[in-house]
Amino acid sequence: MSFVVRGLDGAGLRQLAAHLHPIYRECFAAPPWNEPAEKIADFPVRLARHTAHPGAYGWVAEQDGEILGAVYGWPAPAALPAANAFDIAIREAAPPDVAALLVAPAMVVAELMVLPTHQGRGVGRELLARQVGDHPAWLATHPEAAAVRLYERAGWKRRFSYQVEDRPLTLFTRAAAPTGR
What we know:
It is a single chain. This protein is an alpha+beta fold. The chain has one domain (4-174): Aminopeptidase, CATH 3.40.630.30. The protein has helices at 10-15, 17-28, 37-41, 43-50, 85-93, 96-99, 123-132, 147-153; strands at 4-9, 57-63, 66-75, 107-114, 137-141, 157-164, 167-174. The protein has a seven-stranded mixed beta sheet, sandwiched between helices. Strand 6 and strand 7 form a beta hairpin. Helix 2 (17-28) crosses helix 4. The model has no long low-confidence stretch (mean pLDDT 95).
């Protein structure tokens, strides 16, 4: 399967909200996520908030003019934030040694989504690799998500599990890639 991957800044990602929203719906309305309709409908607002983070950027994979998937995130701040339920849950659950991995110079991977019809074909792997590059990084996902296999095969380390608003999540980290390859 051949596809093209292109990078975008936060503004470029926001311009694609109408194209990314159906992909988000297909990925997160189904099990194990089972996100309610109001959370699915709120995706464009979350995308705008996420891509407003300083340094936010992402990548989209396309084939024949169709977006197959996307990933986005931002450079982690110097201290763990406490701006919302997600941030607070991480602060409370992260052991100190792991908390140290979740701040600068780490990259935060906020969202990775690939159309279900294109999963398992290398799209997510390529998007994730482009997003984090050689940087240390972290992300959270449902412990039963199919993407867990992708993260583990790519060398991400499962660190701890926690809950946000009764939703189980597992946090993964990835060390910086060695320099001088």
